[in-house]
Design goal:
Oligomer: single chain
Shape: globular
Order of helices and strands: EHEHEE
Structural class: alpha+beta
Number of strands: 4
Number of helices: 2
Number of domains: 1
Strand content: 25-35%
Length: 77
């Protein structure tokens, strides 16, 4: 399975979502992107992004450094 990590720590809205979108567009359906972000709005932003695009938010968790991790599966057939 294709997996990638995007370190978006220190970036503020809308940059984490825009960068994730760009990477996801280049991945095959079913691939997974892990995004690490420190923006307080990131959780709501990624939930809305996934609902709007059809990608699946598989998990979100807090990392030891306080950043949030969002595991997103690319939509597609």
């Amino acid at each position: 399975m294709d997996e990638r990590v995007l370190d978006a720590r220190g970036l503020i809205c809308p940059l984490p979502v825009l960068r994730a979108r760009k990477i996801l567009m280049g991945l095959p359906p079913g691939a997974v992107l892990d995004v690490h972000a420190t923006d307080p709005a990131a959780e709501a932003d990624f939930q809305a992004f996934c609902e709007a695009t059809g990608h699946r938010l598989l998990a979100s968790e807090t990392l030891p450094d306080g950043a949030k991790s969002f595991r997103i599966e690319r939509a597609g057939a």
